[in-house]
Amino acid sequence: MYQILLKLFKDKSLKLSWPLVLMEKNMTYYSSENLYDILLRRFKRILFFKLTKKSPPLFLRGKDIISYASLVEGVHEESLTSMIKYYAKNDLSDFFIDVGANIGLTSCQNGPDFKRVVCFEPNPLCVNILKTNLAISLTKGKFSINEFGLGDSDGNFDLFIPRHNWGGAFVRSNANSYTDDVLASKDGFSKIDLENYIVEQVEVKQAKEVFLELFSSLKKDDFKKGVIKIDVEGFESVVLEGIGKAIPSEINVMIVFENWDSKFNFAEIRNHFSNRQIKLKKLERSILDSKMPKFVRKLSLLFNADKSHLVDIDDATSAIGDIVIEVFWSYVYLMT
Predict the structure, then answer these.
(1) I need a surface site. Which of 77, 174, 261, 278 has the fewest CB within 10 A?
(2) pTM for the complete prediction?
(3) Are 122 and 255 in a shared domain?
(4) What is the pLDDT of residues 48-85, one digit of tens each?
């Protein structure tokens, strides 16, 4: 066999990508690279450094949708980050609760503006990255991580993680308000095909009981004003119901959640907080979210800045997007 292989490699008609030389007692490997390849590789490296010079000092996943903006622009969801910072500066800076924290991009960006940061993340593939990123961004003892999800009951469920978008993971169950069509389309798929997902079993706890304990702990430390961010891909109403049933009268919060359902039932939210005064709003872009034709919107961007602003939910162009709930104990609201 050795003699046959030796003859094959001595045959000049045989083309190899990497030249190999077989000796009688050992084998020597080497590869070659021409000047063009060297220069191209170095150019790509320089270009990458230039494009990502504003990127945060965090662990990010290449080719993942949630990492693009952070790598190139230096900030994840800039309009949402700016809005949370605004509320923190306007007396809601005691605590930040991140339900569906993923790898911690929002908590890392906004966390320094709050006295305490509490994260919930059931995805076992993300949680260690979350721990690392928070340790990089926040002081030790300022944050805590709960490695489970929030739902209508305790149990273990399958978490579907889109391979190209770890920020879009969801639990597929009867408690999820999104249809399969919505769950698939939000990640660019025509249907739920298991080939497109990594499936991990995760722990889920009843939202009401978790928030009863959490709010009690916050009250003991005199933390009564804060912000809650919810990104749970179809479990928003379940989590909001848990908050509404658990929140003490003396705690004031701004809640923001991502919505992909164009027919979302906002009357349910009012029912969840029936004993509190609330305002429902949506974070919109002045140009991109306007009702102007697409061509006019693109043309307008050339001459005008696209500004983010809050509008009453009844005046919003669409229900899809970042929904804001202001929950206060009186008729005095933070924003008008």
Answers:
(1) 174
(2) 0.85
(3) yes
(4) 989 999 999 999 988 888 898 999 999 999 999 999 99
